[in-house]
Amino acid sequence: MSNQEVNDGIDAVDANSGHLQSSEALPVLSISDLLVAYDTKVVLNHINLSMRAGELIGMIGPNGAGKSTLLRTIAGLIRPQKGTITFPGLDRGDELRHRKMTKVGYVPQRFDIDPDLPLRARDLVGLGWDGHRWGVPWPSRLRKEAVDKALTLVDALSFADAPCGRLSGGQLQRILIAQAMVSDPSLLLLDEPLASLDLRSADAIVEVVDRVAHETGVTVLLVTHDMNPLLRAMDRIIYVVNGNAVIGSVEDVVKKDVLGALYGYEVEVIQVRGRILVVGDDAPVDLSGGLHHMTPRPEVPEMGSRIAEERR
Amino acid sequence: MNYLWQWLWPPGLWANSDVRTAFFIGTSVAIAGAVVGVFVIIRGQAFSGHALGDVGATGAAGAYLIGISALWGFLAAGFSSGIAMESLGDRVRERDIATGVVLAFMLGLSALLLYFISTSTGTAGAPIAILFGSLFTVNPAITPEVFALTALSILIIALIYRPLLFSSVTAEVARVRGVSARLLGLMFMVALVIAVEESALVVGALLSTALLIGPAASAVQVTRKPTSAIFLAVLIALGQIWLGIILAYDSFFWPPVDRGWPVSFFITSLALLTYLTMRLGTSIWRHRRSRRPRTTSTSSLVASDAQGGTLT
């Protein structure tokens, strides 16, 4: 199947969601005809998306599909070759270079912190408040209240005074969400927040982002390998394969024909005990990166462990 | 008691003008090293700090050959290599490699210059002073310059304190918020070069990390906030240098002859002793509080670095 046909499929779905949006307020984020390339390798192409206030959107796709690239482009860490990213629903809905004003909260992929780092969890959150300003920090009531509010939002008050380097993966993830939330953003971007977390910690993170989106009204865009932990909280899904993306409700996107058009070959969507598995044929050579996670074999880590978990 | 007083405040200590100069310059240098050192630890730049000291030897040897103060030689070499290191290695991963390449060349050059010095003077006095320190022979005329440099390095740290911390701990989040890691890296490099080269003047090019890493590494063991780490590091550094000067003065009456032992030996020994005490103390304290076991990698690297510095 040619690239053009795949793109046609995407435009169709996009038109669908565009229709839904016309009846509501301006979108928080709008991306049109985005193209991102590293050197000559096109990583993302023809991306058209828009997100509304208070939506929780999961970005799913196989390794190397361009999920993190799209997230980092929205965050302003990568400059697109073509296309625009605008924030029409915000006061200063300008180009992305005004991101300091448009307030994008960013939670990076998991990283390690030295256990001896002389910094408490609450100090890390405080850097989200005034870390971009010159000079030394001065304690203020406003700052403390904002930090405490963010810590409460992510259920982190109990370990707020612990050194950052001694937090567990899930705790650090929640502190980083608080750090992003303390600056009162309109859009929260999270890069693989559920990766390498046990099920309980992952559920706690899902609970936090659920609250952020549906109680505080912040738009949340979250990259993850596995859509299943998010199913109960997610409003819409972005499925990214080989630099192309489809956005819509889970029912509209995770279907045989839509995903088949995206992958470029036949796939099956199987529902097992409230979980969704996407199963494809073995990958053609040019799509090898794309197919890896779709094969429902035990060697595929996320699905294998899910199934094992189910049996217990 | 009287004996201890005699030992801590030996007769004639303050009357000696070399001791007075050593005290003033040592105090100034200790403060700069401790303040900058805490950020060196936070940023994981201990190797760069060590390398800048070694490289300084080349400049100091050059300065000796053309007949100016070693301080200017240290600073000239430090700034040129510091800027080169900062601009060659863009990413953290590359920084150590870039440093290594510059370092090897500069040390080779210093071997040549020190050879010229020893053949022209017929003694090894100047090379030993450059490599292992010469606190008691520092020319008192440069005291104002040392004070001014210390003030400059502290001013720089005060100016970039918040964004530097932000960018050092969560680099990508800081970038999204518009913090330029590159600019901060360069500004911090200026403060780092000043602290390292001043320290090299006092304890020698090879041992400069004793005043940079030593106090800060000890302080981060027992503190949870950068500000308290900085204050404690300054206290430790002052104790280290004052006690070092006094011991060196005492050692004029020690065997083998009535020439004092090298002051650098005392300062570096005190640095190691403090570090080991703090580390042991916190381990015992943590063990008794039965916290989760330490899984540290960076701190043990710092430990071996401090040790290596002392044994050199």
What keyword list fits this structure?
heterodimer; A: alpha/beta; Rossmann fold; 11 helices; 11 strands; 22% strand; globular; disordered N terminus; disordered C terminus; B: mainly alpha; ABC transporter involved in vitamin B12 uptake, BtuC; 0% strand
For the record, the CATH architecture of chain A stands as: 3-Layer(aba) Sandwich
Order of helices and strands of chain A: HEEEHEHEHHHEHEEEHHEEHH
**Overall CATH class of chain B:** Mainly Alpha
The first-to-last residue Cα distance of chain B is 36 Å
By oligomeric state, this entry counts as heterodimer
- Spatial order of the strands in the main sheet of chain A? 5-6-7-3-8-9
Helix content of chain B: over 70%
Structural shape of chain B: globular
Count of runs of 4 or more consecutive helical residues of chain B: 13
Question: Unreliable segments of chain B (pLDDT under 50, ≥5 consecutive)?
Answer: 293-312
Any idea what the CATH superfamily of chain B is called? ABC transporter involved in vitamin B12 uptake, BtuC
State the domain count of chain B: 1
Category from helices, strands and their pairing of chain A? alpha/beta
Question: What is the CATH topology assignment of chain B?
Answer: ABC transporter involved in vitamin B12 uptake, BtuC
Main sheet attributes: strand count, strand direction, barrel closure of chain A: 6 strands, mixed
CATH third-tier fold name of chain A: Rossmann fold
Describe this structure in words.
The complex is a heterodimer of chains A (312) and B (312). Chain A has 312 residues and is an alpha/beta fold. Chain A has one domain: Rossmann fold (3-Layer(aba) Sandwich). Chain A has eleven helices and eleven strands. The longest helix of chain B has 30 residues. Chain B has a single domain, classed as Orthogonal Bundle (ABC transporter involved in vitamin B12 uptake, BtuC). Chain B is built from 13 helices and no strands. The interface between A and B is large, with 37 and 38 residues.
